[in-house]
Amino acid sequence: MSFSFWRSPIDDCADFATRIGIAITNSAPCPGDEIGGKYGVIVGTGDQLSGDTSRIDVASASVECLFQPSSSRKVFEIINQGQRPPVIDWGTLLSKLE
After folding, report:
1. Which of 1, 35, 44, 86 might form a disulfide with 49, Cβ 3.0–4.6 angstroms?
2. Count of domains in the chain?
3. What is the 3-state secondary structure (H, E, C) of the chain?
4. Is 64 inside any structural domain?
5. Counting beta carbons within 10 angstroms of the beta carbon of residue 63, is it exposed (0 to 12), middle (13 to 18) or buried (19 or more)?
6. Per-residue pLDDT for the chain (98 aa), expressed as one digit of tens each?
7. Does residue 3 lie within any of the structural domains?
8. What is the value of pTM for the model shown?
9. Residue 9 belongs to some domain of the structure
């Protein structure tokens, strides 16, 4: 297997796993641990988001993906932005992934 210069090894592993039928989810957190879950959560695909993400929310998203069938075989980004609701509705957020 060869890796092109713009793809990370995790991208190639994700592609391989998908081709052989393993369901995976790959989240790409943006830097910004200092924000500590103070803002709302936004998820997106296609390397369109730019911003910071708390490790708390990346960990929560990873766990929630285990229970959300809509997140299977998806690659998405996550950032924190805007007002944080009292409870993050991960089911709704992850169901919007293409």
Report:
1. 44
2. 1
3. CCCCCCCCHHHHHHHHHHHCCCCCEEEEECCCHHHCCCEEEEEECCCCCCCCCCHHHHHHHHHHHCCCHHHCCEEEEEEEEEECCCCCCHHHHHHCCC
4. yes
5. exposed
6. 333 334 455 566 667 777 777 766 666 555 655 666 789 999 988 888 888 888 888 888 888 988 888 888 788 888 899 999 999 999 999 998 87
7. no
8. 0.66
9. no
